[in-house]
Amino acid sequence: xxxxxxxxxxxxxxxxxxxxxxxxxxxxxxxxxxxxxxxxxxxxxxxxxxxxxxxxxxxxxxxxxxxxxxxxxxxxxxxxxxxxxxxxxxxxxxxxxxxxxxxxxxxxxxxxxxxxxxxxxxxxxxxxxxxxxxxxxxxxxxxxxxxxxxxxxxxxxxxxxxxxxxxxxxxxxxxxxxxxxxxxxxxxxxxxxxxxxxxxxxxxxxxxxxxxxxxxxxxxxxxxxxxxxxxxxxxxxxxxxxxxxxxxxxxxxxxxxxxxxxxxxxxxxxxxxxxxxxxxxxxxxxxxxxxxxxxxxxxxxxxxxxxxxxxxxxxxxxxxxxxxxxxxxxxxxxxxxxxxxxxxxxxxxxxxxxxxxxxxxxxxxxxxxxxxxxxxxxxxxxxxxxxxxxxxxxxxxxxxxxxxxxxxxxxxxxxxxxxxxxxxxxxxxxxxxxxxxxxxxxxxxxxxxxxxxxxxxxxxxxxxxxxxxxxxxxxxxxxxxxxxxxxxxxxxxxxx
Length: 496
Description:
Blueprint: H1 10-14, H2 16-26, E1 31-32, H3 35-38, E2 55-57, H4 62-75, E3 78-82, E4 98-102, E5 109-113, E6 118-121, H5 127-134, E7 139-140, H6 153-159, H7 166-169, E8 176-182, E9 188-192, H8 203-207, E10 216-223, E11 225-226, E12 230-238, H9 241-253, E13 260-265, H10 266-276, E14 286-294, H11 296-312, E15 315-320, H12 324-335, H13 337-340, E16 347-350, E17 353-354, H14 360-374, E18 377-383, E19 388-395, H15 402-419, H16 444-457, E20 483-484, E21 487-488
Parallel strand pairs: 2-4, 3-4
Antiparallel strand pairs: 1-2, 5-6, 6-10, 7-11, 8-9, 8-10, 12-14, 12-15, 13-14, 13-18, 16-19, 17-19, 18-19, 20-21
């Protein structure tokens, strides 16, 4: 591992057997302490970095989660929450002196209310399973990350995941109504409600995207939507990336908000087509997939509008889906783009940054120049409608120095995103991958205020340490005063 993580607390590691025994008293059949089995948890989707946890525990009830956290806080033991482990930013990377809290057994859909359009699910339910649970009644769950067959709703809440349809329907934060959250001291709280925009402080908005630093989610109330009457996709090929980027801007400028608008460059197109064989054009430098949904007449009208805008911006090919099967085929290649690149490189490093749409052509040109500079390949797949880039850096981890070059290439891409007015992440989160780049976007005062929020929820800094913040100050250094039972700690010390 080339990444620096907090040094393990050897005193905690020395108590490993006692900690395992105490956790078994809480979850009799859910504690894993065998080194060979723990290796299954040594990394998440960012597989370049690996570290087996000290222990893993798999609770089944909210009461067990509360008891585990209460015990760990009392004993000063760090906790790393984990869903399905599909995080691409190292958000679920274990620590050598921490308990990994696996939420996979929280896998039930608890309630569905079609009249009020919500579903209550446990955090281990996969993203796609929510839609599968309600589709027979004509409903679906809008956020759809490419990993939706595997990623969990709890992880989606932690990272504020998006997907190809987030342009029109929003990210996870726009589709979550409430959560049940267990605090580090074992307190169980409910944030949000079963309707939009409850009164009071928006603590739910604070928790969604908090990357497991504030508490452990044990229940999620999500918004479900009626399936659109019609959905139609256009497959648009361009001879230049600049033309595709101009088309994206033209569609949005015309007041058209597609359900999804995705772009792939030539390497990604070829890899995806070889992988799924859906008929992507191979003689173009950029491919746009634009999906429109709603009443049939509206879809037909907007499809004609989009095709005209594409033609005006140099589109050299256009296919409009004529059936549901063909629409899904158009998306199959995009959904499979990440695994597809494994056909052209042994390893890839998936980046995540967001830029203003108008800068797409410039940024893609700069990324190509950086590829030459770092002597590595790159395939670009991204949510063109909202400027969320996913460059896939191609490398071979078995070749000395290539991982380090891939990391440097990725860092340069993220610096470029911020330079052109964008941000470090769109949907993958900060985790450990972007942690040390946070000062590019935030000054010391900004980061200190963010860390004060962390202290308010987790005063002993035991939840998912080493993530998000490049330098995690102790709460006392930030001026936090802990009050318990109406009294401060060490009341004889003067305070200012």
